[in-house]
Design brief:
The protein is α/β, with parallel strands linked by helices and 403 residues long. Helix content is 37%, strand content 16%. The chain contains 17 helices and 14 strands. The strands form four sheets. It has a seven-stranded mixed β-sheet with strand order 6-5-4-1-2-3-14, with helices on both faces. A three-stranded antiparallel β-sheet has the order 8-9-11, covered by helices on one side. Strands 7-10 form a two-stranded antiparallel ribbon. Helix 1 crosses helix 8, helix 7 packs across helix 9 and helix 8 packs across helix 9. The two termini are 15 Å apart.
Amino acid sequence: MKFNTPKFGPLSGVRVVFSAMEIAGPFSAQMLAEWGAEVIWIENSKYPDTIRVQENYKELSRRNLYALSLNLFSEEGKEVFYKLIKESDIFIEASKGPAFAKKGITDEVLWNHNPKLVIAHLSGFGQYGDPEYTNLAAYNTIAQAFSGYLIQNGDQNQPMPAFPYTADYISGFTVTSAVLAALFNAQRTGKGESIDVAMYEAMLRVGQYYMMDYLNGGEMCPRMIKGKDPLYAGCGLYSCKDGYIVFEVVGVSQVKDMFELIGISELYGNDDVPEGTQLISRKMRVNDAFEAALDKFFGSKTIAEALEILASLKVAGAKVLEVSELQNNPQYIARDSFATWKNSTGKEYKGPNIMPKFKNNPCKIWRSMPGYGEDTADIMTHLGYSEDEISKLNSEKIIRVGK
């Protein structure tokens, strides 16, 4: 294949192959592609990725990629795959537990073809463990529920999962950071790595803050009350006359000044709230009075008035923005937080831009989502297959040549 990947970003020259559907694994691969890596998406030749039914999201989640349609677990498909692996740096797969190993594609087999290869296995419950769990399917809510993350979210009436698809994105970030750490070491030592990312463990780490009190003292933090921090008063969501704001009253001067501002200064500077208090704990007797005074004070203000007051006290705060407000926000505009690009038919799409910003090696969107099997023929040609061989494999449904 005559790869026409432009040279840009900090990962220019790195080649990534991934076999994964929907969100978590592809999200990691997409980030690498946006940072300059050459990324080949292996899609099953028998059926397309289910993400293709998502009319708008698919255009964001598969940009900057090449599409190879391949029956990966057939004998002929494995031969194609191994040829591709020989000249790749990273392979990412997402499946139920050790699915690739069961099909004969073990880490050792891959390293026989490429000793420096970085391999990332992403699954709900990991590559090994209790057989009751290891081979189970997992999605966002499954990983959140099993990890102890879901039970901590929602409100006091009932737990609720965090959306949109939080566990998928957290797991994707985990894969990205892990493969880059492993790539650094592989390039330094010449020896590859195999990474076992379990979605529930990624969410276990994200949910660790409150868990530590339970694990080391038996006390579990309650869930939120009306969008407010479960541990500290003056932190969270508050209503104004024209919408919602969030703020965090944290710091010695901020606590003292806020008590005075909302008219309860007589409750400050005693045994319950001594001088120098940095946070108001829910365990303090003043908790209810503090929250009631905050609700009353900010409930009488507009958002603009509230934010001006918070700024004067050096209290961190922000308006809760509607999605409709994002595009015209001056910070979004100044930082180009949204980008536009066209798909293969010329239709324009708008979505989040590449993040983070790399100063010396800027990144870019250079290609829209490829069609099903769009790059199959070119990739096969690059790997040394003739037109007749490509046609035969296509007719046997080992590959799918698309447009």
